[in-house]
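Q: For a teaching session next week I want to show students how multiple molecules come together into a single three-dimensional assembly. I've collected the sequence lines for a complex. Could you give me the predicted C-alpha cells for the whole thing so I can convert them for display?
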Amino acid sequence: MTNATNRTTSTLKLTGRFDAHETPSFVAKVEPSLANGKSDISLDLGEVVFIDSIALSEMVSLHKKLYDAGRTLYLLSPSDSVRVILEVTGLITLFNVVLAETTPQPNPVESMR
Amino acid sequence: MNTSNYDAYQHWSKTPLTTTPRISVVVPAYNEALRILPTIGAIATHMSSRSSDPWELIVADDGSSDNTVELLNNLGLVNMRVLVATANGGKGSAVRRGVEASRGEYILFADADQSTPIEQFDMLLGRLIDGEYDIAVGSRADLSASETKKSVFRRVATTGLRLIVKLGFGIKIRDTQCGFKLFRADIARDLFSRQRIRGFSFDLELLYLAQKKGYRTLEIPVEWIDAPGSTLDVGKVSLAFLVDLCKIRINHLRGLYANVQNIGAPHAGVSGGQPS
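A: Of course. Below is the structure for the complete assembly, covering every listed component.
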C-alpha cells in the first residue's frame, strides 16, 4: 500500500474542453512526470467543461501506467459536468477522484502548468 | 465550482417528472457507443441545472448495430427514453421519431457528438421564448460563430453546398446542416409531418418547408467543434446532399409537401424512462 502524502505529486490543471484535439498536448505535458518514475500525478479538472471518449481513454491509459508502476493518478475537484460524465461512463469507480470539498493540498506540488 | 448542478442532475436522473416537460431534447444516435455517454452526461448536467424548465431526454436510436442502446438503458435515467429502431432509417427518420415521442413545448435536436456544446441552448431558447421566432437554428455560417478544428476539405465542401442552397433554392438560412436546432413543438410537428427526406439532408428539407410556410426562423451563431470519429463521409454526404436538393425540388413541384403523413419509420419500441 502506498502513501500519497509521502511522495511528490505533479499537478496538471486542465481547462475548457478536454477532447481528442487536446490529447496530444496532454500526453506531451504529462510525459515528463510519467518518465521521472517517482511522482504521482494529479489532474485538476475543476475548470473542465467537457471530456470526450478519446480523452477519457487517454486518462485510463495514464491511470494504468501509473498503477502498474505503483503510482497513483488523482482527479482533483472535477466540475459538475465532468463528475457526471465520469459517473455515466462508470469510470468514477476506476479513478481516484478527490472532490472539491475534500481536496487535500498535495505536498509538495510540482506545478506543470 | 459549486455542487448544485450535480445535485440537480441527481434529482433529475432519479425522480420522474410530475409535470409535462417544457423542453424535450432529442438526440439521434447511430452506432454511437464510443461517443454518446459523455454527451449524455454533459446534456443532463446542463439541462438539469436549469431548474425553471422541466425537461426530458429522448435518444432516438437509428438501428445501431453496436451496443449504443444497451449502454443507454443501463444508465437508468428515469426521464430519458430510448427509442429503439430495428433498422437504419436515416438521421431524419430518427429525429422525426424523437419529435413524435416528445412532450415538450420546445424541442431541441442535438447531435450525439456534442459538437455544439449544450450550453448554447440557452441562447436559442431566449430567442424563441418571447414569441418573436418559431425556429432557432444553430449556425456555423455567421462570422461571429466559432468553428473549430474543421478540415479544409470539409470547409470547401460546406461552402460550395451553402452556395448551391442559397442560389438554387433561395433558402435564406446559410447553415442548414448544423445539428443544433430548436423548434416550437407545434411547428416541429407540422414540419416533420410533411417530411420526405429521411437521411442526412432532412434539415434542409425542414428549413425549405419552414420558409415556404412562412415560419419565422432565426439563424444564431454557435460554437462548433469538429468531433473526431464522425460517422460521416464528407464526399458521399455532399453527393447525397445534392441528390436530395433535386428530390426536394421535385417533391415540391409534385405537390407532395401539402400532404401530412404519419411516420412510417422502423420503430421497434421504447425503453427506459417514463411511458411515452
